[in-house]
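User: My collaborator sent over this chain with a note saying "see what the structure looks like." That's all I know about it. Can you take a look?
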Amino acid sequence: MKTRITEIFGIQYPIIQGGLAYLAYAELASAVSNAGGLGQITAATLGTPEKLREEIRKVRKLTDKPFGVNFAIARHDGNYKDLLEVAIEEKVPTISITGGNPQPVFERIKGENIKTLVLVSGVRQAQKAEELGADAIMAVGQEGGGHLGRDDIGTMVLIPRVVESVSIPVLASGGIGDGRGLLAAFALGAEGVEMGTRFIATQECVHANNVYKKALVNAKETDTVIIKKTLGTPGRVLRSEYTRDIIEREQHGATYEDLKNVVSGEANCRYIYEGNEQEGFGWAGQVAGLIKDIPTVQELFDEMVSTAEQGKQRLVNIFEAEKKFI
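Assistant: Without extra context I'll predict from the sequence alone. Here is the result:
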C-alpha cells in the first residue's frame, strides 16, 4: 500500500497504533512497526525521563523500523518538557500529540528531524494543526475509545469533512479494527487509519490483563458507554457496574472533585492491569463489537491486508458489473 502516510513515515502499511495510556510499551510498539505499521510508546504514563529513554532504547532493540512516541499533553498538566527533551535527544522518528494545545511542542521541535501527528476531533482543530506544521492528522470519530471530542460526530461524517478542510494527509480513527474499516477509510478520503482498542486485544499488548482482553472479545458494539461528559472530557469505556455508577453520579450533579478518584488513572490501572472490575474501568471503542480473537499483531495485519484486498475486488466487481448494463 502506498499513500502519503506510508511515504512520510517510512512504513509499509498506513496503520498507526494509538498512544494507549498505560499500555503502549516497547513490546506492542515494536510488534506493530515490525508488521509494517507505525508503533508508538506513550510518554505520559512512563512518568520520568529516565524511564522514557529506557523504553525508547528497548524499542530500538526490538525493531529497526520507524516508531513514534505519544505525548498526551493534557495528562502531563504541562509537565512534559523533560520527556520531550528525551525524545529529541534520542532522535525518535515521530511524535504524536493528543489531548491539548500542540503549539508549544511544535515550537520546541522546530528544526528537528521529527515527523508529527496530531489527534483531532473536528475541522477547526485539524486546520490549526496544519497551520502549526503537522505532517498528518488523526481524526477520531465518536465511536472511538478513550477521550473523544465534545460534538458527537461519527467517523463516517468527520473524516470527509476533515479531509476536505486540510491539505495534509488524514488518518481515520474511531470504529476501525479490521480490513473493512481500512478500506472504508480510503473510500472516505483518508490515507490510513489509527487504531487503539483493537491493538489492546493482541498478544503483544502484554501489560493488559486477560480480563480486559477477554471483555473486549466478548463485548458487543452496545457494550460501551461515555463517562465524564458532564465534566467536559467525555471518554468511551466498557459498560460495567462501576461505569454505570459514574454516569449516575454525573446525572445527579457530581463535580470533578467528587469523581476524580473514580475516574483517575489509578482506577483505570486497577482494571486494565489487575482485572479488578469492582474498582476500575477500561477504555474501549465501539469496535469492540468486531473483535473476536486475540491474535498476534502480525496476524492482525495479515487479516487486515487480506480483507482489504478482498473488499477492493468486491468493489471492482460491482463497478465492472455496472458497466455491462450501460
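A starting point for your reply to your collaborator: The chain has two domains: 4-207, 210-287.
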